[in-house]
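Lecture notes, continued. The same structure-token format from the folding unit now serves as the input rather than the output. Read the line below as a description of shape only.
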């Protein structure tokens, strides 16, 4: 993860709990399962800090609502694909300089709490 530089803000969305179709087995294809999403976003926040105005901030509520709709309305075979599609949604916002998305699939393995995939992207 890049270093937090002056003027940059780090937004974290922690443990966004959603249900979607995820997997390749018949049971997974036919039944929604839980996924947990963690998101980290860096963006320049100088204007938001200075003006105290939402129009100058990255609206994490808007981003989160788009993620919820996308995850709940689609089907995914692989965690990698789901994670990349969420990352793509976040990176559509031009002010985002860096984003990291982790998606956990609880109880995907017999003796593990969960399995997760993390992907990241940055813009200069």
């Amino acid at each position: 993860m890049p270093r937090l530089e002056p003027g940059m803000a780090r937004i974290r969305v922690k443990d966004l709990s959603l249900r979607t179709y995820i997997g390749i087995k018949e049971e997974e294809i036919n039944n929604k399962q839980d996924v947990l999403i963690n998101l980290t976003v860096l963006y320049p926040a100088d204007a938001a800090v200075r003006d105290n105005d939402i129009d100058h901030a990255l609206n994490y509520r808007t981003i989160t609502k788009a993620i919820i709709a996308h995850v709940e309305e689609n089907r995914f075979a692989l965690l990698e694909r789901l994670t990349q599609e969420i990352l793509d949604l976040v990176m559509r916002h031009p002010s985002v300089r860096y984003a990291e998305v982790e998606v956990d699939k609880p109880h995907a393995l017999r003796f593990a709490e969960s399995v997760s995939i993390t992907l990241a992207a940055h813009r200069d």
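Point for the exam: DSSP finds four helices and five strands in the chain.
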